[in-house]
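Field reference: sequence -> structure
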Amino acid sequence: MNKAKKNDWVKIHNIILGPEERAPQVPEDTKKVPLELWVKGYLIDEKAEIGDTVVVKTVTGRRVSGSLIEIEPSFNHDFGSYVKELAYIGPGLRELLKGGEHRE
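Structure field:
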């Protein structure tokens, strides 16, 4: 799906600040990259295609412009890669809070 029409749920992207515009107090690695924005909302324009500059209305009522990158985006959540240490920290902590082996 490469074409959207008014009121379609879409996702846009915009560069808020270029690397040269970043605040001087931000960390060095942060200064090297732009400050980017991704927003989901309802398309205000009558129609658009991926890559077009459009305006969306968010669920909170803000109007934001940016480049259309996705139509009907899904919600994807991720908690990152497996962390081996967390496999035993959680059960160990629960046991400790219960009083462990010394609990009667």
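Note: The beta strands are 3-5, 9-17, 35-43, 47-49, 53-57, 63-71.
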